Amino acid sequence: MLGVYLSMSGAFRIAATPQAPQQPIPPPVDFRSGKQPSDQSKQDAPKASQPIPQEEHPDVKEGSKADVDAIGNRQVGKGVNFYSIEREIALGKSLAQQVERSSKLVDDPVVSEYVNRVGQNLVRNSDAKVPFTIKVIDSDVVNAFALPGGFFYVNSGLILRADSEAELAGVMAHEIAHVAARHGTRDATKGQIAQLAMIPIMMLGPAGWAGYGIYEGMQFAIPLSFLQFSREHEYEADYLGLQYMYKAGYDPNAFVTFFEKIEAEEKRQPGTVPKIFSTHPPTPERVAAIQKEIGNVLPAREEYIVTTSEFDAVKARLRRVEDRNKLQGDKNAKDKPTLRTRTEGQRPNTDSSKPTTQTGDPSDDPDRPTLKKRTEDSTNP
Q1: Residue 253: its pLDDT value, please?
Q2: How far apart are alpha carbons 92 and 367 in whole angstroms?
Q3: Which of 33, 146, 227, 287 is the most buried (most CB within 10 A)?
Q4: Catalytic residue (one of 234, 238, 251, 293)
């Protein structure tokens, strides 16, 4: 399948850097618990500027979450969840309708088809149990997000900011992992359980039934949780997403380079981190965790997909589409009718011997249309 994909997309196969001599690998991090590596382990982590050494045959348990050969047949997304798969899809569809009512989608068929194809290739190499609908939003903000049930949106700003197809695939794989692990509905379930646990206290407390009314009102805030994930789930999305992009054939080091790029921008100009990382910034802890996964879990390969000629062509096409939309927007703004005051419509007095007066009389405006009564004589032939 990978060979067919490469031949169809015109991909440049980039040979991986020969493996460096084996070095002691730091102890693996428990990504499922979200535990951060220690300061010492961060110092021992390989530098991301060079390809991270990978083991030929990582020591992982067969069928476990670390076994990339078992992707699609693993126990991912398990846990207490009030939402069935069908209800999750229905919820995502409802939220997607809200997104599309308030957003402008890129309607260029070439761009849309390419992004959808990259995304669907990642989905096929993931643990997702739902079909995905992938669309591009016309926005300069570097962002991508996936709603429960597989409704996935990629901002044009992310595509233009990525330097390679592998970088784009890395961010998309992270969001696909959120859906595969059902983070949105699992987090929402935890919130609902916490709220249900408060009901007895509200009933017995001074507020009585008024307290129950407060609980009812809190329900309106639940949908916001579908895009705000816990620290543990962000680490798990990194862990799974890295595996998905690797399984699809992409260079996993691109995941790290994109993080490093964002880190460098934040250091150079604080406060400029794109919104995609505003709730889960690319901290050194996350980078170190990703580096360790590459070294400990992902088997070494001779070559990876880094970028394709199609990515460069689509990126250039998207930039032209964005420029054309902006020019059209400016033109439409100029063509729109404007309101003006009566004095703005008065012509300047070119005769200096006559003083300029503003009487406030509507008839003083020469541009104002006037009505004239037709005389009776003019009606006779």
Answers
A1: 94
A2: 55
A3: 146
A4: 238
